[in-house]
């Protein structure tokens, strides 16, 4: 199938409300050490969907957009189960557990741009229009520097919640 574009979604505070277990630094980036401590099946089960979750579902169902989840999470079985149980489908997921161990030392923006540059070097994705939704200012800035438009997840969720 020929896709018409690529939609890239972050997870935490973009399509999933996980504030109860996702501590961030003041700049909005993930405190990875504290996150890993709180990353239990019991805590993941308490997560909730944000309004953008409906957007990812609708885009996937339309069949014309290639859906990528690009997250700083170290995904575990409970994370994949949460996505499946909540009807979140995707074509590809980029997460820390699938990255080289050196990615654990990278800041979120550098980590995500590294993943996305690798993806967009693939011939089938090179020329497709791309857009990303993310909540962290440093990530949004880093992604924009590689030429990908980024929509602020906080603003999008607020808009969708009141629409």
Description:
The structure is a single chain. The chain has 163 residues and is an alpha/beta fold. Helix content is 41%, strand content 16%. It contains 8 helices and 7 strands. The protein has helices at 32-38, 41-44, 52-62, 77-85, 108-120, 123-126, 137-145, 153-162, and strands spanning 5-9, 16-17, 48-49, 65-70, 92-94, 130-134, 150-152. It has a 5-stranded parallel β-sheet, with helices on both faces. It has a two-stranded antiparallel sheet with strand order 2-3. Helix 7 links the parallel strand 6 and strand 7 (150-152).
- The CATH first-level class comes to Alpha Beta
Strand order of the largest sheet: 5-4-1-6-7
The first-to-last residue Cα distance is 33 Å
How is the main sheet built?
A: 5 strands, parallel
Number of helices: 8
Q: What is the helix content? A: 40-55%
Q: Ranges with pLDDT <50 over ≥5 residues? A: none
Walk me through the topology:
Elements: E1 5-9, E2 16-17, H1 32-38, H2 41-44, E3 48-49, H3 52-62, E4 65-70, H4 77-85, E5 92-94, H5 108-120, H6 123-126, E6 130-134, H7 137-145, E7 150-152, H8 153-162
Parallel strand pairs: 1-4, 1-6, 4-5, 6-7
Antiparallel strand pairs: 2-3
Helix pairs in contact: 5-7
């Amino acid at each position: 199938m020929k896709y018409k574009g690529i939609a890239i979604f972050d997870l935490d505070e973009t399509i999933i409300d996980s504030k109860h277990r996702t501590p961030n630094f003041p700049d909005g980036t993930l405190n990875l050490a504290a996150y890993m401590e709180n990353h239990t099946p019991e805590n993941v089960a308490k997560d909730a969907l944000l309004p953008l979750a409906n957007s990812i579902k609708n885009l996937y169902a339309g069949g014309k957009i290639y859906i990528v989840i690009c997250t700083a999470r170290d995904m575990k079985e409970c994370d994949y189960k949460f996505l499946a149980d909540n009807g979140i489908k995707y074509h590809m997921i980029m997460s820390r557990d699938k990255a080289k161990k050196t990615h654990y030392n990278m800041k979120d923006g550098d980590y995500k741009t590294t993943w996305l540059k690798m993806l967009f070097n693939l011939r089938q994705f090179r020329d497709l229009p791309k857009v990303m939704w993310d909540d962290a200012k440093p990530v949004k800035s880093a992604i924009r520097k590689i030429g990908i438009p980024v929509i602020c997840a906080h603003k999008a969720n607020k808009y969708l919640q009141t629409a």
